Amino acid sequence: MGVEEEFLLVGPDGSPVAKAQEALAASGNDNREGGTGALEPEFMEEQLETATHPHASLTALAAEIRAGRARAQDAADRVDARAVALATSPIAFTGTTVSKLRYQQARRVFGMTAREQLTSGCHVHVAVADDAEGVAVIDRIGPWLPTVMALSTNSPFWQGEDTDYASFRSQVWTRWPTAGPTRRFGTPQAYHAAIEALVATDTVLDQNMVFFDARLSPRYPTVEVRVMDVCLDPDTATLIAALVRGLVETAAREAADGHEAPDHGVELLRTAAWRAGRSGLAGDLVSPLTWRPAPAHDVVGQLVAHVRDALVDTDDLRVVTDLLGRLWSTGGGAAQQRAWFAQTGDLHGIVERALKVTHS
């Protein structure tokens, strides 16, 4: 498994600054090809992205998540900026699209959707044997992805205002025409046909702009889960990586044992995701066991129970339990941001305190 994290670049006052390419050049990390272990630009000049190498060990992955954050900060330091794990900026901004032909084309085609896409996510990749196993996994994990997203929620503020969402990033992200949950595909042929049909509409630029919540990675032999906010705390990123690997392994086992993939309908999956983005861990989530609302703590417990055997087999259960306890004690990124703002009424102060947690 591997983790990609996107970070905001902010100036001394906490406002986003357009210095990504300058920071990468100054730090010697200006390889635009990217890849595992890379530090690279994202869609906006106010962002940097890190990518870990693949790891079997959760301990090794956790160490590289922290190392990636330090690498991003080292690059930012060279241009009088800082790298912070906030999925949206609390402070009002005007985004700057990276001067890459494809990104500039996307800005022209998608208008404000592209211009306002200063959001930072977390993507988890988990290796699969082949496309058949990957599609079998994608067909089975969808009902649990809103719960995973709720654990990551870290974007309550947008353009200087409290949005009343735990993840407003998820609202901004779903403006893209191909973003969101997917139907049951059944076979790799059906999956690839769906991708080809979307590209053939000439609405998206290419297959890399098919932004399904979970997809076969265009770059690696993995299932890529893309629903999460970048996590404020590096431990939360580790927790989510463990749970996503557990979901992928559980789904692969179900498929191998001949259990048919459920077909709950995209409308239910989309509604459950909206609810997770709205309240995060602070309210009810939609339980995949009943498709009725239940307290977030209970639904997270159902997720852990669902993947328990996989967590035991990778020796991750104790770590997941410990990290969940820590997450519940803080309330997660969205709750922490709101608590900090309630104490001071200062949006700039949120960024300052978030920087300390980012690099803890």
From TrEMBL:
<dbReference type="InterPro" id="IPR006336">
    <property type="entry name" value="GCS2"/>
</dbReference>
<dbReference type="GO" id="GO:0016874">
    <property type="term" value="F:ligase activity"/>
</dbReference>
<dbReference type="InterPro" id="IPR050141">
    <property type="entry name" value="GCL_type2/YbdK_subfam"/>
</dbReference>
<dbReference type="Pfam" id="PF04107">
    <property type="entry name" value="GCS2"/>
</dbReference>
<protein>
    <recommendedName>
        <fullName>Putative glutamate--cysteine ligase 2</fullName>
        <ecNumber>6.3.2.2</ecNumber>
    </recommendedName>
</protein>
<comment type="similarity">
    <text>Belongs to the glutamate--cysteine ligase type 2 family. YbdK subfamily.</text>
</comment>
<keyword id="KW-0547">Nucleotide-binding</keyword>
<dbReference type="InterPro" id="IPR014746">
    <property type="entry name" value="Gln_synth/guanido_kin_cat_dom"/>
</dbReference>
<comment type="function">
    <text>ATP-dependent carboxylate-amine ligase which exhibits weak glutamate--cysteine ligase activity.</text>
</comment>
<dbReference type="InterPro" id="IPR011793">
    <property type="entry name" value="YbdK"/>
</dbReference>
<keyword id="KW-0067">ATP-binding</keyword>
<keyword id="KW-0436">Ligase</keyword>
